[in-house]
Amino acid sequence: MRGSKMVGCAIVVALAATACGGGGSDDGDKGGSGGGFSMNVAEPKRLIPQSTTESGGSQVLSGLFTPLVDFDAKNEPVLAAAESIESPDNKVWTIKLKDATWHDGKPVTAKDYVGAWNWGAYGPNAADGNYFFGTIAGYDEMNPVDPDGEEGPKKAAEPKAKELSGLKAIDDKTIEVTLKAPFAGYKSVLGYTVFYPMPEAALADLKAYEEAPIGQGPFQMDGKWNHDKFVKVKAYPDYKLGEKPKVDSVEFRIFQDQNTAYNDLLANNLDIVDQIPTEVMGTAPNELGDRFKTSLASTFQFVAFPTYDKKYKDARIRKAISMAIDRDEIIKVVFQDSQSSARSFVSPVVGGYREDTCGEACKFDPAAAKKLLAEAGGIDGNKINIGHNADGGHEQWINATCDQLKKNLGLECVSQGVPKFAELLTQVENKKFSGMFRLGWIMDYPSMENYLGPLYSTNGSSNYYGYSNKDFDRLVDEGRAAKTEAEAIKKWQEAEDILAKDMPVIPLRFGKNVFGHSTNVKNVEMNLFNQVELTKVEKS
């Protein structure tokens, strides 16, 4: 049970959220064996699988759906909803499905996957996860290049097709996927949220479906999505695809302030907080005792430059700002050493990671930074701002970063909050936010490629900053097509070296899960994808 990518929170970084943004009820929170529990999430941007690419929505969907594959302790894919996934050449993949039913009792079929994926791949639908279908044959016809040379759902020319030519339902239980080029790691890709199915009826009225999604996972909706307040789910009694829940229900409570959520946790009014707020990191271990938890995570926190803005067009300016930030000091003072400094563009949890790939650009050197900034002609107006989602607990570290930039570069720097993470993503996606902005990334599947393609490819699903480098794109593609993992990693490392020269973003921190739970629950675990493992939680 896992999920997705862009994250809003500062610390451990599991999406934005926390504080009572309206609340939720206490129904089912207190009961005995079985019973239910509550946890914090951010207001999801979407609850359509093919458009859910942030961690709040993904946490909810991880309970409602089961992926084709999950991952073991070694990050190897293991079959979940799939009975088998095979390919003789890494290009044509045959997926056979296990028997399963939707939450309304109807059987899950191959057509349910094909219909959902075609909807996500069709450019005019503007699905946030559209990019992930780009390796399948026929994608280009559904997302043609427009006269300006730009590609993608929002500015594309009229598509020539509405379905992927490389996607077929062979029978009720068999899907055939033909890729544009071989991709040895494609089995792992299929574990991502956007590859969940949807019932055929959902496509007839997605707006209505999204308010109460029908899935095939261990939990089913209990009522409708109560926006800015809560999403309730209950155990699905006929679940067949994996471990059944040990509780009767889960209430995902939507918060806008992390400290409020934490206070609710201390009062036993909230059962799980997936991110301990920065402000209480020093006291939380004593306050929670053995209910204060940490675990490995795949989180990568960074500040992005709007490379389409002439103010930040010169790579020397971007490097100078990076060199003027003392990552280690901020982690020590603000984060109480709960995170580690990032000087590479991929997480240490994936194969191919190398230390300090950012080189001089990520080395704290105020004198060299000031000199480089002067050589580049300085910053227009001598003013910069760093945007962030106000519901994610970023104000403290961004203020500390601004203080360093004022001191080390003489820049006027301010923190600029946007109320919700989903709103920030929408603004930067539409290029309506002016200035630098923070983002966080959780891997979608355990591969170095997942830290490169979506974030920095010209048409990457989460390339919100307009970065484009043809050599980088080529190397990422060549890595996908490589016959062995070693060959693929070599190509992807070459691509990462290009990022170190161009610096479209500033690597800042690698996170870990730092979370806590009430006395009402036990066996609370978070995985590398920064998600609570919902089926493992038990009542105390």
Task: Describe the protein's architecture and organization.
Strand 7 and strand 8 form a beta hairpin. Strands 1, 12, 13, 14, 15, 16, 17 and 18 form an eight-stranded mixed beta sheet that branches. Strands 2-11-10-9 form a four-stranded mixed beta sheet, with helices on one face. It has 15 helices and 20 strands. The two termini are 22 Å apart. The protein is α+β, with helices and mostly antiparallel strands and 540 residues long.
Number of strands: 20
Shape: globular
Biggest sheet character? 8 strands, mixed
The share of residues in extended strands comes to: 15-25%
Structural class: alpha+beta
Helices and strands in order, then pairings?
Elements: E1 6-7, E2 36-41, H1 55-64, E3 69-71, E4 77-79, E5 82-86, E6 92-97, H2 110-121, H3 139-142, E7 167-171, E8 174-178, H4 186-189, H5 206-211, E9 219-221, E10 230-235, E11 249-254, H6 258-266, E12 272-273, H7 284-288, E13 292-304, H8 315-323, H9 327-333, E14 340-341, H10 366-375, E15 383-389, H11 395-409, E16 412-418, H12 421-429, E17 436-441, H13 453-456, H14 470-481, H15 485-502, E18 505-517, E19 521-522, E20 538-539
Parallel strand pairs: 2-11, 15-16, 15-17
Antiparallel strand pairs: 1-17, 3-4, 5-6, 6-8, 7-8, 9-10, 10-11, 12-18, 13-17, 13-18, 14-18, 19-20
Helix pairs in contact: 8-10, 14-15
Pfam families: SBP_bac_5
Organism: Streptomyces cyaneofuscatus
InterPro entries: Peptide/Ni-bd, SBP_5, SBP_5_dom
